Amino acid sequence: RCPLDIGVIGFNDNPISQNFQPPLTTVYLPARRMGELGAKLLIDQINSQTHYDYQIVLPVDLKVRSSTRKQY
After folding, report:
1. How do beta strands 9-11 and 61-63 pair?
2. Hey, CA dihedral for 6, 26, 22, 66, is it positive or negative?
3. Average pLDDT in the 22-45 region?
4. What is the mean pLDDT of residues 3-15?
5. How many CB atoms lie within 10 A of CB 67?
6. Cα–Cα distance between 61 and 25 in angstroms, integer?
7. In what order do the strands lie in the sheet with 9-11?
8. What Rg value do the Cα atoms of the chain yield, rounded?
9. Are 27 and 63 in contact (CB under 8 A)?
10. Which of 21, 38, 33 is nearest to 60 (CA)?
11. Res. 72: pLDDT tops 80
């Protein structure tokens, strides 16, 4: 029994997630922005022949729907 016995979470907030029964909780990842930044970093590293060793943190968005429940 979802969400009483088990919680289910998906990712990328696919529009169909809202149509599941119960509607699926998802995490939205900025995939396009991730790709853009990854390509830019790769091109910069190739052009400068250097290696970057750092982390970029992008915002994510949790879309809470009925496939999970809060624990108090």
Report:
1. unpaired
2. positive
3. 93
4. 87
5. 20
6. 11
7. 9-11, 25-28, 61-63
8. 18
9. yes
10. 33
11. no
